[in-house]
Design brief:
- This protein is α+β, with helices and mostly antiparallel strands and 191 residues long.
- 23% of the residues lie in helices and 31% in strands.
- It has five helices and six strands, in the order ααααββαββββ.
- The radius of gyration is 17 Å and the shape is globular.
Length: 191
């Protein structure tokens, strides 16, 4: 994922974002519209999946810390907030499980990027390999969600991260998930 340095990114105010990550990392990860942007606008002409959600993400913390149980290792933590809106609901009026899974997928990626960006300047691309989600309680229209994303491990090819989706309005856990992502192989040229 590469975001070119432009005046919008360089001048964006990140003072409201807690955490010890660099200003640059906070700027890149809090600009979620650019972070998740369509990379192929000449080929993909219409709105991409969850584009309306990306626009509503509010990054409130970006931290890189030593792991408690293994001080020689670091972990990335990114907290994202957004309100439950109508386009996130199922037919029963609560947040759709597929929407929850998508939120976990997208927001957990931010924590992985925070950690990788703190250690290298090379481009980082990953794709989902597996996800495991437990649904604890429903979230309703208008509830404020707080997604706490923390890396578990970042290896040469496989990376794991966990996410807790909290209902900040009612102070209860909505869902918890873990995800394994991997660095994709380079595409094979077609003859």
């Amino acid at each position: 994922m590469t975001i070119s340095k432009n005046s919008t990114l360089e001048n964006s105010d990140v003072a409201h974002i807690a955490g010890n990550a660099s200003v640059h990392i906070k700027r890149v990860l809090s600009n979620t519209e650019a972070f998740y942007a369509n990379r192929f606008p000449d080929t993909i002409k219409k709105t991409i999946f969850c584009e309306a959600l990306h626009e509503r993400f509010k990054v409130t913390e970006v931290s890189i810390t030593e792991k408690v149980d293994e001080p020689r290792k670091k972990e990335g933590r990114v907290v994202v907030e957004l309100d439950v809106m109508e386009d996130m609901l199922n037919g029963g009026g609560s947040m759709h499980g597929g929407c929850t899974a998508s939120l976990i997928d997208m927001c957990s990626t931010l924590a992985l990027h925070a950690l990788v960006m703190s250690e290298t300047t090379s481009e980082y691309i990953s794709v989902s390999q597996t996800m495991n989600i437990v649904y604890h309680s429903p979230a309703q229209l208008g509830d404020k969600l707080r997604l706490v994303n923390t890396t578990l491990t970042v290896g040469a090819r496989a990376h794991s991260v966990r996410t807790e989706v909290w209902n900040a309005t009612h102070h209860r856990l909505v869902a918890s998930g873990s995800q394994i992502k991997m660095v994709p192989s380079a595409p094979v040229p077609r003859l």
